[in-house]
Design goal:
Helix content: over 70%
Strand content: under 5%
Oligomer: single chain
Radius of gyration: 22 Å
Largest sheet: none
Distance between the termini: 48 Å
Number of helices: 17
Order of helices and strands: HHHHHHHHHHHHHHHHH
Number of domains: 1
Structural class: mainly alpha
Shape: globular
CATH class: Mainly Alpha
Number of strands: 0
């Protein structure tokens, strides 16, 4: 049976298309440009970018739940989403005009933090724009079209970079004009693709604000954290998610920096990452369709196991063609593990408090990459062996795999207890009579 998205679902997907251009820029050209403008600091690109990414994710871990709680109040979700979007896109555009590496990293932290905060609100919108039974496929379509759609601005950006790249025998475009065009183009694409959702979105699930919305939001967040503590299946999922998505986001953030430190040609690395995007498009759609016949939790477990093997393989990289193989393998599972995790979580939380719950989700998700990027940077810095730093991620995937099994079992147990309670209710009522 063919899956057809509604107009609102398609507009929601378009934001994935827009923000994915920035995601791709972060994982590909930003490490290269940082190396070019860093001078003496360029020998430690992975280390500095790793620490900067960790700072950005720590900021999101602190602000995400607070803004998520505020976004659940009537009429606030769209406003908070708009501010985060505009700050992130503006920071991205200005990055192209910066020539000092410290200011470059400062703007990078600002832009990446705002980008991640926009996703806290965007992910929670899933509860407003579609039904629970459609979430797996809608979420998968978002990542799938995000990957393939972001290729359009990325190809233009790579072309502009090639016009600059002296080692390819061209070098007709100076570095700063190339950076300005690339970063402004990405920011414009990001904002442009956001307009359909921005114009059409209406907050269906919300909490009525009290006399002091900020104070009420904070109190509500406190209650949500206590609720999560009582709901064992949600808490176990979040802890498992912390570990396995940690590795996913760390690989996305540091892939090109890692390849550059190993001495691979930057242009070939960019093409390899483009292959990842192209492979991820059909993979995410096909595995999303598979969720009709296979339980999503089994697909998530398969993706975690695949990533474990991918990180083991990455330890032994020393040839460019091996990086290409790695890029294809990552593309097969990258979109699916993110999409299925997002949809799985959306289906086990109360929709009227989706902003708060996704704020907490972001602590365990994108905030989790604080640990991954920090450990990779730290181990690489201490041992002077980038391969060993990447190997740390395999342990994260293994822990996440085991904990997710416990989370699924806990959810099944909770559902069986609830079902048993519903079945006995009529008899109990009759007895009372």
């Amino acid at each position: 049976m063919k899956f057809k998205m509604t107009p609102l679902e398609r507009k929601w997907v378009w934001y994935d298309v827009g923000n994915s251009a920035f995601t791709l820029l972060v994982s590909t050209l930003i490490p290269i440009f940082f190396t070019l403008i860093a001078g003496d600091a360029s020998d430690s690109a992975t280390v500095y970018l790793g620490y900067s990414t960790s700072i950005a994710t720590a900021i999101v871990a602190l602000l995400g739940p607070v803004l998520g709680a505020a976004s659940d109040l009537r009429g606030m979700k769209k406003k908070i989403f708009s501010v985060a979007l505009l700050v992130g896109a503006a920071g991205c555009a200005v990055l192209g005009f910066v020539s000092h590496w410290i200011w470059f990293l400062a703007l990078f932290v600002l832009s990446k933090s705002a980008y991640s905060l926009s996703l806290v609100v965007y992910d929670s919108m899933l509860c407003d724009i579609t039904a629970s039974a459609r979430m797996d496929e809608v979420s998968s379509r978002g990542y799938a079209w995000g990957y393939i759609g972001s290729c359009a601005p990325f190809i233009l950006c790579v072309f502009l970079y090639i016009l600059y790249e002296p080692s390819m025998g061209i070098g007709v475009l100076p570095l700063m004009p190339a950076m300005v065009l690339i970063f402004v183009l990405t920011a414009a694409w990001w904002v442009g693709c956001s307009l359909p959702l921005w114009k059409s979105y209406k907050q269906e699930h919300f909490v009525e604000p009290g006399s002091h919305p900020v104070r009420e939001g904070m109190r509500s967040l406190g209650r949500t954290i206590k609720e999560i503590g009582r709901e064992k299946h949600i808490l176990l999922f979040l802890i498992a998610f912390f570990f396995f998505i940690d590795g996913v986001y760390t690989i996305i953030d540091l892939a090109v920096a890692y390849g550059t430190d190993l001495g691979f040609n930057s242009a070939l690395l960019l093409l390899a990452l483009l292959v990842t995007q192209i492979v991820a498009f059909p993979a995410a759609i096909l595995l999303g369709m598979l969720s009709r016949k296979v339980k999503p939790q089994y697909l998530i477990l398969a993706c975690i196991a695949a990533y474990f093997l991918i990180t083991i393989y990455a330890i032994f990289l020393d040839e460019t063609y091996e990086f290409w193989i790695l890029a294809v393998c990552v593309g097969l599972f990258q979109g699916t593990i993110q999409a299925m995790s997002r949809a799985y979580y959306a289906k086990i939380i109360p929709p009227q408090k989706a902003g708060e719950y996704f704020g907490v989700y972001d602590i365990f998700g994108k905030g989790a990459s604080f640990l991954g990027t920090f450990l990779v940077a730290l181990v690489a810095d201490v041992t002077d062996m980038e391969n060993l730093g990447v190997g740390v991620l395999s342990v994260m995937f293994l822990i996440g795999f085991v904990l997710f099994i416990f989370a699924v079992r806990s959810k099944t147990h909770a559902e069986s207890l609830e079902s048993a309670g519903q079945e006995t209710l009529p008899q109990e009522e009759k007895t009372d009579e």
